[in-house]
Amino acid sequence: MLRTAAILGAVTLAGVSACSEDGRKAVPPVSPGTTTPTPTPTPTPPATHPFTGGRTGLQNPVLAVKIDNTRPAHPQEGLRSADIIYVEQVEGGETRLMAIFSSKLPRRVGPVRSARISDLHILSAYGRPAFAFSGVQSKMKPYIRRSKLYDISQDNGGSSYFRVGGGRSIPYNLFSSPRALLAQAPKASGPRNIGFRFGPAPEGGKPRTSFTARWPSETMGFRWSAAQKRWLSSHSGRSNTAAEGGVLGGQTIVVQYAKTTRSRFHDFLGSYTPLIHTTGTGRATVLRDGKAYDARWSRPNEESGTTFTTAAGAPMTFAPGQVWVVLVNDGPPRIP
Question: In 70-202, which ranges are continuous DSSP H helix?
Answer without folding.
Answer: 117-123, 141-146, 154-157, 178-183
